[in-house]
Amino acid sequence: MDGEKVTIAGWVQNIRVLGSIVFLKVRDKEGVSQVTITKDNPNFSMVKDITPESVVAVTGVVRKSEKAQNGWELIPEEIKVLSKAEVPLPLDISGKIESEFETRLNARFMDLRNPRVAAVFAIRDCVTTAIRNYAESKGFIEVHTPKIVGAGAEGGALLFPVDYFGKKAFLSQSPQLYKQMIMATGFDKVYEIAPYFRAEKSDTSRHVAEFIMLDVEMAFIESQEDVMKFLEEGIKRVFEHVKKHREEELSILGIELEVPKLPFPRITYSEAVEKLGLKQGQEIGTEEEKKLGKIIEEEKGTGLYFITLFPEEEKPFYIMEAGDGLSYSFDLELGGEEIASGGQREHRYDELVKRIKKKGLKPENFAFYLNAFKYGMPPHGGFGLGVDRLVQKMLGLPNIREVVLHPRDLKRVLP
Questions:
Q1: Residue 200 annotated in active site
Q2: pLDDT tens digits, residue range 260-270?
Q3: Residues 297, 314, 338, 412: which is the catalytic one?
Q4: Residue 175 to residues 130, 180, 228, 293, 385, Cα–Cα distance (Å)
Q5: Is 72 left (phi over 0), alpha (psi -120 to 50) or beta?
Q6: 54 tagged catalytic
Q7: CA angle, 403 as apex, 415 and 310 as ends, to 5°?
Q8: Catalytic: 45?
Q9: How far is CA 185 from CA 148, 368, 378, 399, in A?
Q10: pTM above 0.90, yes or no
């Protein structure tokens, strides 16, 4: 485009005055452009008064330049200040001066101007695009379940109550009951990417109160292995898609993304506790989970693996029992943390009612859900995958809030 007249618009990243020449760096989502203003240019006097991060529009002629960072510069005919930025800025987006994480979250609009932060969210977008492409290629349809519900999938624990026109209601913690009900309709493969809410009083680097989940349910399965195969292939597709389409952003973050190989290793819960030196029936906590991740990494050379056949008492009422106190359930682990959980569901009405009672719950509180199981429910299974946690672990970031635009936790409800 050497010699062509163009208009660019963006934010003023910095201004360098070198005697009789001024260099204006203008940033937009495609990158940074250099605007070169010499003393004889009519814009020379006004450009020095522009503050960093002001929004400008520059019209001028493109000129090839070996000295410019990207091989060309813009010689301006007109510079318009569309919005002047106040000084001082709430944080330094160059990263030269490190800001507290809380400061960054309070000024997230400014934080996202940092190329490293922007790269994270560009990759996150690529992840959800890959998920949708994969699900649709396998014949799944996207559904949207209610986010204001009358009962929780786990029986009421960790729910945010809502005054719904004087009636008792809650913010949805999971679409579990609804996506299972859809299995009775003939739509035998469904998925949803949506926000869910959990009133978990955990102030950790891996928990937020509002999170994005991928939920999948599929009918006419022979076993939970059908679900696991769909999930592991999907994860592989996500890694491939990000590596192919977000090469620049991965480079900005200094990440060499390795596409996982199939199949992912599978170990039973019993094998897991044995490796950890725990007793059978003992819960695998956060620290044990991390320790197990290191063991599997050393043994199998991968951080992605399934833990299967958990004790049935650990799992919700809708998971099918496998006998001997076990259940047809699984967790998918990445880097020592669970990123997905699922299994085969109990599709037999009488057995499902027994499971609900066994968990100390009242079947009448789930009448709307149980009704779908009375009139022909096929064998089915599915999983829920934390999109936030997947992106966090994929990029090796220390805090899940790094991948959430405006995180909600124990202390934060604004902005």
A1: yes
A2: 999 999 999 99
A3: 338
A4: 21, 9, 19, 29, 12
A5: beta
A6: no
A7: 120
A8: no
A9: 22, 15, 10, 40
A10: yes
